[in-house]
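ok so i was messing around last nite and threw this chain in just to see what happens. nothing serious, just curious
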Amino acid sequence: MEKPDPTVRHPIAGWRGTAYLKSVVKNPRIEVGDFSYYDDSRGPEHFEARCVRYHFDFVGDRLIIGKFVAIAQGVQFIMNGANHPMAGFSTFPFGAMGFVPGEAFAGDGEPPRGDTIIGNDVWIGREAVILPGVSVGDGAIIGARAVVGRDVAPYSVVVGNPAQVVRQRFAPDVIARLLAIRWWDWPVEKIMRHVASLRSTDIEALEAAAREGESS
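result:
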């Protein structure tokens, strides 16, 4: 059986609205893991322009997306370049707008909040907004139109504005075991052999699959 290729543009036969991000992302400050995809009926090749906002070179922050991440149409990653100063009386970007000759953007924003990091096997629903410096843990689900301004724990489900955790996908001990298994790091061939276990909720079966090939 032919194995999937994370570098192809359109992985779904006959549908050009989904693209593996590795085939469309060009910005070196956007890092994308294998098999992460963006779905957009208007053309997923426009991911950077439509979804990654205020990602200015002079700020230097990165968007890091793990493996097997599913991103729905209209998701917005708001990067640190969107920040305005809040310590003084005015939030207006005087430098950028020419009120301070020679200053340009310097001093116009709050200190960067760091890289935006999306873990592995994350599902981000339609038109969700991820604010600067947020980390989303492995296996999390971000609901449609959620506004995420704080870190999301692994295997949490968050919805709303501001986004709130509504439940954990699995019991804490199961989450710990899933994080130890890290199935997304397996070779593609091994993943293909154990799709049934990945679709199930049998953690013992998945752990057995993880041990495949270990010497006794």
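not much to say yet. The first strand starts at residue 18 and ends at 20.
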